[in-house]
Structures are given as structure tokens and as C-alpha cells.
């Protein structure tokens, strides 16, 4: 069997399989394989060696990977009437996000930071909110400037369920992808640098009363955008990903109109930090 491509998002494999089934009446195989480059099991889509339409399938694969979120692929999966496909898309939030079970096997650093943020947020809910925020906020005066944990710890506390879920979802997905595809060291460096830089910038514009992983998350999104664009690593980003980042920044400036205030300085500085870190990474290749 010849591997056409592998993906950590199993929905991609299902969409492509069902699209090819509908267009060519050909059944492709989805199965596990060992990715020697990454060193772990992946899900991949396979076809018989030397199949008569192999060249066409390679061409279809190229088009698909350029724009996997094109509606024609998802539509093919629904029209195929495949129970597994339909259940996978409708059953859980995991399927809605297009995450395969391999996404749940995150690296230790991704898990640790996610678990730490979750533990802190649970303590906030349980009545320790004021104590925690007082302990982790960015340095507010000269005396606190020697408490070096504060330059990073502000990123670990969150102020609302939506704030918490949004930041941790993106961190879990793309922070985990960085750790798996590259290394925990690169993720750790990006985490510390972006937390410090976004904290310094946000403090300059708004003072020390800001919290959340947003600056780090925007740095991670900027980082994967650059590495994916220059083919340093493949993160299967949807078309319009860069536009989504711009819109996210723009919404941050518009949100005060509806009574929501965001750390726009942290978002922008974090994004720039990730973009620059990604460009530096590419040049080291």
C-alpha cells in the first residue's frame, strides 16, 4: 500500500476518502502507520501501489492539502452516507474541531501548562480569585519588580469561562503541535519570551491589571503561520488563517463598543513576537 498523506486531523482523511469515493468510485484505506520523522503513530490514507489513477490521486491530494476546508470535501463526506463520518462530525466537540484522537496525546509541556492554567482557574472559581490575582499579576511597583515570577505568571490566570476556554483551546491545539513536530524546548522558549514581551507592552499601555494566555496564544498562532507558509513544518492550517488573525485583532479594538475590553497590546505584541520568532526559525534552517 502507498501512503498518500498522513494527518493528525482524522476528519481531513475522511473528507478526502469520501471525496475520492464519490468522484472515482475508488475506496481508499485509512489506517495507522509509524511516522519515522516524528517518531509516533499517525493516521494516514493509503492506496494500492501502482494504481492506474495514482497520478490523478496525487494531483487531487495536492489540491486538497492546499484547501482542505473547501466545502466540496465536507459535502462529499455527508453525501457518502457513511455512518462513521457523520457520527464523527456530529457526535462531539472533538469532531467539530476536526481533532483526531492523536491530538489528545499531547507532549508533557503542553499538558503541564494546560493543567496548571486549569488548576489555577478552578481555585479562582472555588473562592480564591482575589488571592490568586494578587499573587500572579504583573509587577505593580518597584518592590514587586524583584518578584520575577510575575513577568510570566500573569499569563496563567483567566477572568471568565470564555476567556479561559478560548485561550486554552488554541494553546492545546497549536502549542501541542509545536511540541510534537518541533520540540518542547521551542515551545517553552516561545512561551516565556511571548509572556514577558506581551506583559511588558500591555503594562505600558494599560497598567498591571491584565491576565490571560492571549499574548502567548497569538505568538503561537503567528509562529505556526510562518513555519507553515515557508514549509518548515506542516500544521494543516485552513485557508484564511492569516485573515482570521487580523480579524481577531480588529475585533479586539471594536469590542469596547459592546462592553468587552481586551488586551489588544498583548495580542499585537504576542503576534509580532511569534511572527519574528518563526522568521528567525526559518532562517536557521
UniProtKB/TrEMBL annotation:
Locations listed in the record: Membrane
Membrane topology of this protein: Multi-pass membrane protein
InterPro entries, sorted: Peptidase_S54_GlpG_N (IPR022732), Peptidase_S54_rhomboid_dom (IPR022764), Rhomboid-like_sf (IPR035952), Rhomboid_protease_S54 (IPR050925)
Assigned keywords, A-Z: Hydrolase, Membrane, Transmembrane, Transmembrane helix
Peptidase S54 rhomboid domain residues: 146-280
Principal cellular location given in the protein's record: membrane
Xref: SUPFAM superfamilies: Rhomboid-like
Gene Ontology molecular functions: serine-type endopeptidase activity
Statement: the UniProt record of this protein carries the keyword Transcription regulation: no
Signal peptide span: none
Transmembrane segments: 109-128, 148-175, 187-205, 211-228, 235-254, 260-280
EC number: 3.4.21.105
Domain Peptidase S54 GlpG peptidase N-terminal: 16-89
Family: Belongs to the peptidase S54 family.
Protein name: Rhomboid family GlpG protein
Lineage: Bacteria, Pseudomonadati, Pseudomonadota, Gammaproteobacteria, Pasteurellales
